[in-house]
Predict the structure.
Amino acid sequence: MRKTLLTLLFLLNLYSSYSQDTIVYFSDAIKENIKPYKKSSNKAYESNDIKEGKKLFDSLVKTKLIGTKFDDFSLKVYKEKNVKINRISKPIFIITYASWCVIPKGEIPALNILAKEHRNDLQFIVVFWDKKNDLKNIAYKFNGNIKVCYANEYYSKDSHIVATIKHTLGFPTSIFIDENKNVVNVKHFENKIKLKTPIKEAITSSYNYFSKDINENLVNSIPKNEGFTTN
C-alpha cells in the first residue's frame, strides 16, 4: 500500500513539474520569435507591401503569442500605487501609447464609456512609454475606471516590459489577457477618424470599434460552457 502511495506521489510530482515546464511566457515567446518576424516584416514594409506586413504580424500573434502566459509585470500607476498584473483578478485590456503621439479624436471618451460599462468584468489599463512628468497633460482625460500607467527606459525596473512590448510590438498596440493571465489577443490598431469629424461621430466610431474587439475577446477568454453577460 505504501509503495503504491509513493508511486502515486512520484507521478503527481512528475506531472506537476512537467505542467510547470510547459508554461510559455509572453516575454519568452517574443524573445524567441521576434528576430525572424522583424526580418520578414521589415522586408515587406521596405517593399511597401503593407498587406504582407499586417499578415506577418497576425501570424506571429496567432501562432506564437496567443495562449502564452503574460508576465507578472509591475506597473507604475499615475498618482496611484503600483500594481502587479497577477493581483488583478479580472481580464485585462491593455493599450499602449506615447504622450508625444496624438491620440485620435474621440478615442479617449469612447474608452472612458467602455471602461465604465465593463467596470465589473474587465480592467482597462493604458500604458504610456513615457516618464511620469510627461503624463501631466493627458492622464486626467481618462476616468477612474482606467489605470493610467507609464514605463520608460529612464527607469531601470522598466527594462523588461519596455524590451518585451515597446521595442518589439510597437504602439499603439492592444493586448487582451484573460483572468488567468493568458494572452487572448494582441492587435495593432489604427483609428482612421479624420480631424474634421464631428466629436459625437468620432466617439461613436471609436466606441463601436473597441466594443466589438472587447466583446469578441471576452467571449474567447471564457470556457464555451459558461455564459457571458455585459453591464
